[in-house]
Amino acid sequence: MSLKGRGAVITGGGRGIGKAVARCLAEAGASVVVSARSTNEIEAVAAELKADGLEAHAITCDVSDEASVNAMASAAMERLGTVDILVNNAGIAPSNPVKRVTLEEWNRVMGINVTGTFLCTKAFLPGMLERGWGRVVNVASVAGLRGSRYIATYCASKHAQIGFTRAVADEVADKGITVNAICPGYVDTPMTEYSVTQITEKAGVSPEEALQHILATSPQKRLIRPEEIAAVALMLCGKDGEGISGQAIAIDQGQGNH
Ligand code: NDP
Questions:
Q1: Are residues 197 and 105 in the same domain?
Q2: For position 32, what pLDDT does the model report?
Q3: Residues of the chain with pLDDT under 70
Q4: Does residue 255 form part of some domain?
Q5: Does 194 lie in the same domain as 79?
Q6: Model pLDDT, residue 14
Q7: Are 192 and 226 in contact (CB under 8 A)?
Q8: Distance CA 112, CA 47 (A)
């Protein structure tokens, strides 16, 4: 129970990676808030955790909206007492060749993936600074470490999220707070199911062919399990992660070495 007594907020906690991170941190003893726009999904996650005897709350929030983030932050602090751990995981990943990307799509991706990370960090960092202890984990992507065709907007947002991670980590390096990014390759979540659907529709291929296209980026020829991301998040939040900050940790099956 390495996180006993810690309060943790996980954005995008209603499904996929966020849901796995919430369970992993709660099983390590943290009291968790799961947050997202879909109230039904976060309530279901919180109910599942509570049914297993863990402490969990659901608070609806759109991370791209400052008023919504501030309201979520107040409610989270009220329910948890203190928020010591923030996992900025909420994100979206539309794909399009850059000539077809609309300004609306660009702004929506930046608003959620980048501004959302900024707003949530800004909301919870003062409490961490006051107490001299905090962990911020940003779920970025391998798309934050290199470029790939048809996801220029997503790549730009994830590069920005990693730049933000490094700068804030430096700013709080001597304040008992660590800030890191986790950079997965394709993970087995609804987001990847959506990517398969997009490739199927846009390239006119079957879902099996679309999945093979995705797996072609994977040296181990498999999707990463959400629990693999959660295990790294837990390590970063626990005692043994104390010395790691400002890092962008790839979980990509060695893809980056090719
Ligand atoms: P999912 O689509 O499965 O889940 C995304 C979560 O984010 C949902 O709970 C969603 O809920 C929430 N979310 C989206 N927009 C907002 C918003 N404006 N405000 C609050 N919550 C929001 O995605 P994954 O679990 O796959 O991805 C999680 C993170 O991991 C993302 O940042 C993604 O970029 C990153 N990632 C994913 C990879 C993958 O292959 N799946 C690979 C690398 C990185 P709701 O829509 O109800 O708000």
A1: no
A2: 99
A3: 257-258
A4: no
A5: no
A6: 98
A7: no
A8: 26
Query: Domain of 229: which CATH number?
Result: 3.40.50.720
pLDDT at 257: 62
Q: To test ligand 1's pocket by mutation, which of 41, 89, 145 has the most ligand atoms within 8 angstroms of CB?
A: 89
**Could you tell me the pTM of the whole model?**
0.98
Is there an atom of ligand 1 within 6 Å of 144 CB? no
How many distinct structural domains can be found in the chain?
2
Going from the Cα of 137 to the center of ligand 1, the distance in angstroms, rounded, reads: 14
Q: Locate the ligand 1 atom nearest the alpha carbon of residue 64 and give its number.
A: 18
* Cβ-count burial 168-207 (b if 16+ within 10 Å, e if not): bbeebeeeebbbbbbbbbbbbbebbeebbebbbeeeeeee
154 and 215 housed in the same domain: no
Range of the domain at 201: 187-223
Active site residue 194: no
Q: What is the pLDDT of residues 209-229, one digit of tens each?
A: 999 999 999 999 999 999 999
What is the distance in A from the centroid of ligand 1 to the CA of 53? 26
Would you say the CB of residue 62 lies under 6 angstroms from ligand 1? Answer: yes
Q: Is residue 125 within 8 Å of residue 172, measured between CB atoms?
A: yes
Q: Which atom of ligand 1 is nearest to the CA of 38?
A: 47
Distance set, CA 57 to CA 30, 42, 53, 172, 189 (Å): 12, 8, 13, 28, 22
Instruction: Report which of 255, 121, 131 is spatially closest to residue 186, judged by C-alpha positions.
Output: 255
